[in-house]
Amino acid sequence: MPLILDEAEVNRRMNLPSESGWLVQTYPGSILQVRAVRRFVRDSLAEHPAAEETEIVASELVTNSVIHSASCLPGGRFVIRLAVIDKQRAGVVVTDEGGPFCPSAEALGLDSESGRGLEVVQALSSLFWVHEHDGFRSFCAVVATLPTPLANSENTELR
After folding, report:
1. How far apart are CA 38 and CA 44, in angstroms?
2. Least CB-packed of 22, 120, 121, 123 within 10 Å?
3. Domain residue limits at 120
4. What sign does the dihedral 11-12-14-17 (CA atoms) show?
């Protein structure tokens, strides 16, 4: 599967240092692979502060790919790429084999049982975009964790 956007462009948009490397895994296009992707993200980002949020984002993007793209067809596959951007941010790119439409975040009824995945991705991402290319589709996200406030700070009282 080709390398989606040119790597320099992804690095530029994610503000990723050019010397940073991407961790790349290819999986069969099956919903059964979501668990393996979550483990890959968890293991790859181990102690990174954005690991948990990145795992959720990757899971949502992969779920969309194996449900809404040609990746779910026999022989289909998808690729996930991970990178540590800095101490607070991680990048994730999921590339699938495209399809007849591009999933988007839409307003849903309160009783809808599905369709919130991209809303979750957008809520957890500081940057998110979709790129279609040569029949493939890449979902690119930067996931950031806010610094935690200092405990026992002298300025914790309202005055």
Report:
1. 10
2. 123
3. 7-19+28-144
4. positive
